[in-house]
Amino acid sequence: MTEDPRLQWLQRDQARVIHPLHNPELQRQGHVWVRGHGAVLVDADGREYLDALSGLWNVILGHGCQELADAAARQMRQLAYASGYAGSTNPWAVELAEKLTQVCYPRINRFFFTCGGAEANEAAFKTARFFWKIQGQPSKVHIISRRWAYHGTTLAAMSATGMPAYWEMFGPVVPHFSHIESPYPYRFQFTPRGPDDHRTPGQAAADLLEEEILRLGPENVAAFVGEPVQGAAGVIVPQEDYWPRVRQICDRYQVLLIADEVITGVGRTGRWFALEHYGIEPDIVTFDKGITSGYFPLGGIGVSDQIAEALDQGQGSWMHAYTYSAHPVGCAVALEVLRILHQRNLVQRAQELGKLLLEKLRTLESHPHVGQVRGLGLMCAVELVADRATKAEFPPQEAVGHRVHLATQRRGMFTRMRGDVYNLAPCYLTREDQLERMVQILADSICEVLGQG
Ligand SMILES: Cc1ncc(COP(=O)(O)O)c(C=O)c1O
Predict the structure, then answer these.
(1) Are residues 101 and 243 in the same domain?
(2) Helix count (H) and strand count (E) of the chain?
(3) pTM of the full predicted structure?
(4) What is the mean pLDDT of each run of 10 residues along the chain (453 residues)?
(5) Which domain holds residue 435?
(6) What separation in Å is there between the alpha carbon of 150 and the centre of ligand 1?
(7) Is 427 exposed, middle or buried (CB count within 10 Å of its CB: 0-12, 13-18, 19+)?
(8) Cβ(118) to ligand 1 under 6 A?
(9) Residues 350 and 338 in one domain
């Protein structure tokens, strides 16, 4: 038996634990996180790592936040759990919904709480279908999403997810889900319809939604779901004119717009919710992650006044529920997160820090294998390519992204990659010297794996 506490934990882990995205090979090289402070995670062998992704984009206030721990403990002592099923509520759920009303889109004023992002998306899809049934349009059931989307791994969320690796071994996918191409500005291409077609790439990408709605028949389409900035795909920031056109198309064909703001919500992009950047509002917004800064599992959906009215009108019940909906501890922690964000003006800080991070990352663009540096707010990515002129990717067997990931870990930084795309979404309280260190580690690691260029 090894003396190294990390290796001891890993051996025991391999015998008993099934991981999210379980992969025994990766687990053999795994970390055993035992502590955290601010933007730093500590492994069982005592090594410190800059947490470049704030956990999984969620720990927005950093690790070791005393106020959040106190809020959870206080709540657990007073009322650890009580059902939120119709006929019951708790003051923390009420207050959280009230506070969210103040920061969310103007037309979104009612909230349902879940334990996570996939659950929130399931709730959104079901609510869209419910809404159309109440409106006397029961055939509107189809959900359109996009390639590269990540909406979670429960069956319907998985079916909306646009990365085949997530469904290949779990098929068949749920019927009445389909995908259109992502607007992915670095790679999106379209063939003009003719010499008079002067559409921009953003408009052409949005028009794919119209084509898909017409292919399916508008009378069959309930909703379009999209992340304002596609996160897990490698921080795909759409063209400026993409979302406004998507909104118009949804309105034209009476299709609900669901914004999956599980990552982008609660300030991550430098605005409270990310479609604000594009001057539009969704009909349903889903959120999770940052709302409790990862200190307790809580997500949810917010719905437009029109949908809220339908929920109140329904004959009988909206038969959707989770045991842990409106969990008082989750709601109390979320309230504390919102209080801290307001008190310390941290959404603004996310915006400023994000600008700084992007600026520093842009210095990597001189490396011939850095294809693109991109970001919005405190959500950035560096896409590595084999050939910058053609944007050709590295052959997967070269595992370039994985090797860069290992190199950054040797230098004391941790994240989650998408192929050869390095994602950075540190916490809103990251210090500037830590941001600089992150960029330096990434630069050195790219040079170690791909040469100086
Ligand atoms: C945009 C988006 N939606 C949904 C989810 C799923 O959330 P959860 O893992 O809490 O189910 C994620 C998770 O990363 C996400 O990034």
Answers:
(1) yes
(2) 14, 15
(3) 0.98
(4) 88 95 91 98 97 98 98 98 96 98 98 98 98 97 98 98 97 98 98 96 98 98 99 98 98 99 98 98 98 98 97 88 97 98 98 98 97 98 98 97 98 97 98 98 98 83
(5) 31-52+345-450
(6) 7
(7) buried
(8) yes
(9) no
